Automatic annotation (TrEMBL):
Residue span, Phosphomannose isomerase type I catalytic domain: 5-105
Pfam families: MPI_cupin_dom (PF21621), PMI_typeI_cat (PF20511)
Stated name of the protein: Mannose-6-phosphate isomerase
Gene3D superfamilies: Jelly Rolls
Positions with a binding annotation for Zn(2+): 97, 115, 172
EC supergroup of this enzyme: isomerase
CC cofactor note: Binds 1 zinc ion per subunit.
Active-site residues, record numbering mapped to chain: 192
Keyword annotations from UniProtKB, A to Z: Isomerase, Metal-binding, Zinc
Catalysed reaction, written as an equation: D-mannose 6-phosphate = D-fructose 6-phosphate
Molecular function via GO: mannose-6-phosphate isomerase activity; zinc ion binding
NCBIfam families: manA
Domain Mannose-6-phosphate isomerase cupin: 240-312
Amino acid sequence: MKDIIHLEPVLQEKIWGGSRLKTQFHYDILSSKTGECWGISGHANGTNVIKNGEYKGRTLRELWKEHRELFDNEHGEEFPLLVKIIDAQDDLSVQVHPDDEYAQKHEGYAYGKTECWYILDREPGAELILGHNAQTREELQQLVDAEEWDKLFRSVPVEKGDFVYVPSGTVHAIGKGIMILEIQQSSDITYRFYDYDRTDDNGNPRELHIQDSVACSMVPHQDPELDRLFWKEEGAVIERLIQERYFTVDKWDLSGKIERKNTTYLLMSVVEGSGFVKTEAHEHKLHKGDHFIIPSTVASYSLSGKMTVMVSQTTKG
């Protein structure tokens, strides 16, 4: 395959969701409680359908299983990364995700969930919960048992353009009014600490996972040190947001044309503006909200236009 893999987004309703995925990204949302767009996903809970080319109508999950040559012949049972856009009209639950070892032992799934967030938009005064104030696991358990949530959880303000790294074990919650692009391990395992006593459509309290949450949490919390690196190329300013064990994420701000030889497969999401992507096979018009993959079978490609593209890949070596 010498062309991009253009993906149909998967929309997910959430109790805390809103309608900005339609107003800002023009997706055909399910309702006014649409919380997530799974833009690049091979996960069983929501895998994208291919929109173009010889694999049109197939799913990314099928391609990963049957055509590993498109993905550097990478090993692993599951497509390794998942790229989402999240619209939090209300606060998300305070939660924590397991690491690989815990997920394999307790859930029988290959991956835990380390993730990162690029803040696309936020209402004035919006905050995240990021981390906790307990110094020992015993103190964590005591504060949870006493339901002293204000004392336990740590809130931090955010601005548009901020980048947040959330390794597994980090207590966290996306706050009301925040919209993010999330790049994560391809896992849907979430343990809830606290959910504001909300109920589901049937009036039942949403399930909490206190024992797993305490067991998985990083104690004490530590903020990761991040160095955001910038460099200029003809036609673009590129920022390396993170390079860690599971993924490498760059932000490309294009104001012209950038041409690249290709050495791997790349996940790309257009978060602002419009432009074009061109391979040996075809040229495609790109719009805000488009998600696509440049497979490793493409030898070279170019991007052009005035747009911001988030580029992620598995970290090699």
